[in-house]
Amino acid sequence: MRTFTAILQKEEDMYVARCPEVGTVSQGETIEKAIANLREATELYLEDFPLKETKHPILTSFEVAECVKA
User: Fold this and answer.
1) What is the dihedral of CA 21, 26, 27, 31, to 10 degrees?
2) Which among 54, 31, 48, 52 is positioned nearest to 17, based on CA atoms?
3) Closest Cα to residue 13, out of 29, 27, 25?
4) Is the pLDDT of residue 24 over 90?
5) What integer pLDDT is reported at residue 67 of this predicted model?
6) Minimal CA–CA distance to 32: which of 8, 12, 13?
7) What average pLDDT score do residues 18-41 get?
8) pLDDT confidence of 20, banded at 50, 70, 90?
9) Shortest CA distance to 8 belongs to which of 50, 59, 64, 65?
10) How many CA atoms lie within 13 A of 45 on its CB side?
11) Would you list the DSSP string of 18-59?
12) What is the Cα–Cα distance from 55 to 65, expressed in whole angstroms?
């Protein structure tokens, strides 16, 4: 069993889920469904393209000043 990262973003009425370690992407109407679909997509991808090792990305956040337009 391997652990991967899921990054989710709300786009209109769907959640888009991405796995940065593998590059797979999926979506769902709920967070849970998006992750389940991403898990399935990642499993199918790894059947054809197995990874030798997994490197976890470093996740952080940063701030950007808002520009005020006159």
Assistant:
1) -30
2) 31
3) 29
4) yes
5) 83
6) 8
7) 97
8) very high
9) 59
10) 14
11) EETTTTEEEEESSHHHHHHHHHHHHHHHHHHS--S---PPPP
12) 31
Quote the tokens at residue 39: 């898990």
Tens of pLDDT, residue by residue over 38-65, are 999 999 999 999 988 877 888 899 999 8
The chain-wide mean pLDDT, for the chain, equals 92
What whole-number distance in Å separates Cα of residue 35 and Cα of residue 19? Answer: 10
Check pLDDT > 80 for residue 70. Answer: no
CA 46/CA 11 separation, integer angstroms:
26
Q: Domains, the chain, ranges and CATH?
A: 1-70 (3.30.160.250)
The closest of 8, 56, 10 to 35, measured between CA atoms, is 8
